[in-house]
Amino acid sequence: MVPEPVYIAGAFEHPTREAPDKSTMQLHAEVTAGALDDAGLSKDDVDGFLTAGVPEYEHGLTPLIMADYLGIEPSYMDSSDVGGSSYVGHVGHAASAIRDGHCEVAVITLAGRPRSASQATGTGARELRSYQDSFERIYGATNVTMYGMAARRHAHEYGTTSEQLAEIRVAASKHAQYNEHAMFRDPVTVDDVVNSRMVADPLHLLDCCVISDGGGALVVVSEDVESTLDRRCVEVLGVGESPGHHDAGRIDLTRTAAERSGAAAFERAGVGPEEIDYASIYDSFTITVLEALEDLGFCEKGEGGAFVEGGTLQAPDGELPFNTDGGGLCSNHPSNRGGMTKVIEAVRQLRGEANDEVQVDADLALAHGTGGSLGTRHGAATVVLGGAP
Amino acid sequence: MSWEPRPTPDVNPETAAFWAAASEGRFTVSRCGDCGLAFHYPRTRCPDCFSDRVELEDASGEGEIYSYSFTEQVGGWPEEALPLVLAYVELDEGPRVMTNVVGADPESLSVGQRVEVEFVDTEADDVSIPVFTPV
Questions:
Q1: Is the distance from CB of B72 to CB of A144 less than 8 angstroms?
Q2: Most buried of the four, A193, A302, A307, B50, by CB within 10 Å?
Q3: Measured between CB atoms, does A256 come within 8 Å of chain B?
Q4: CATH superfamily assigned to domain A6-118+209-387
C-alpha cells in the first residue's frame, strides 16, 4: 500500500549567526513564524510540534515549555533527541503522525546560542552526565578528538589523506561564497586546509564546522493541507533512523549508522543513491561527511577519499553537489546541531530557490544528519525528498 | 601524582567493583557466563544475549592501539597533562576501551602499537583510573 503523501510546505533558516541580544526561546518563536510564513500558514493551523531539547533548560519537559511559550496546544508532540540528527528524524515522525491522523500541520524547530555563550563546542571537556561518561569523558574526550580518532582509523584502513578530507571543505567554501549569511565566505584551497592549525591530530581547524547562534524550522503538512497552499511543496519520500554505538567494545570508527538509516530511507522512497541529484550531508567535521558518503552508498566503503577528489561535491556541475549553502563547515551550525539546516537547503534545491550559482537541476534530494559522536555513540537520520510537480 | 583535577568517575552500584579492582591494580572486563562475550564498559546484563550471569574477570591489561588523536586544546585540562592523547585500545580479550595513552611522545605513536595498562590514583581510595602506555 502506498502511504498517504506528506509534504514539507515551509522551511526557514534564521539569518542570524550571532544573537547576543535574544533568548533561545525567542529564536524558536522567530523560526516558527518564519517557516509558517513561508508555507502560507498561521500559528492557529499548528496541531503538531517537534523539537529536540532547549540547551538552557535541560530539566526536560521540552514540549510543555515550548507549547506554553508559543501559545499552542498541539495534538501531537515529540522531543526525541538524538543530537544534530534529531530534526531529520523528526520529519519522519511528523509524517507518521500525520498519516495516523494525529495532526495535519506539524512544526519542527531548532534554536540555540552557543556562540553568544562562548561555548567551546569542539574542545570543551564536558561534565559527566551519562553512565558512559565515567568511562569516556574522564579521559578528556572532546568532540574533535573523538572525530580525530575516526579520521585516523579511516586513514589507517583505507589510506584516506588529509588532502582528500580537505576537498570537502573546499567544496563547502566554494558554495558559501554565494551565501550572504554564511560565516565564512572566502573560498579556500586544499593547501589552506592542510596548513591550518592542527586542532586534534589529524584534524585541522578547517576540518571543523563553525560555532553559530541561530536556528531553523520546517512545516510538514498532510496532502489535504498541501492542496490548499499556493507554496511549492516538497514530498517526503522516505525517512530512516538508526543509532550507532560502542557495541560492547566492538565500535568501528570507520562505519556509521548511515548504513542503516540510508538503506531504510532509500527503500521507503523506492530509489537508490545513484538517483539523488543533490545531497545535504551533516558536516560537523570533514570526516563526518566522508564516512556518511560511503555508508549512504554514494561510493564503496573506503573509497570516499577518491570519491571527493576532482570536484565531485561542487555545485552545480559536480557528480554529487552537496551542502550548497556552505553547510556547517562554512555557513551555519546553530545550537551545535546541523540536521535542520541540512533539510532546509535540500528543500531550497528542490524548489529551485538555492543561490543561483549553486542551483542544481534537482528532482530528488537527500538530507542526512549525524548526531552525537562517531567516537562513542551517534544517531543517523536520512530523508529522501522529491520535488512536487 | 593524582588524577585530579581531571574529572573522576561517578561510581554507582553497578560500576563500583570495576573501579575498586582498578584501585588494586587490576583491569577487569565483564564476561557473560552464558554466551561468553567479553565486554566493556561494565554492565550487569550482557548486551548481546541479555543474560544476567555476568562477572568481572581480570584482563591481561595488554592490547594494541586501535586509534588515537592528540591535542593541546582540552577545556579545563591541567597543563601538565597536555598534549592529551585520547585513544581506543583494543584489549587482547577483545573489547575496544577508550583511554589515554601516556608516557610517550604523541608523534611517535602508531595504530597497532602494543600497549599495557597502568593506573593513576585518585583522591578516593577505591577508585583508580586505568591508562595505557607503550610496552
A1: no
A2: A193
A3: no
A4: Thiolase/Chalcone synthase (3.40.47.10)
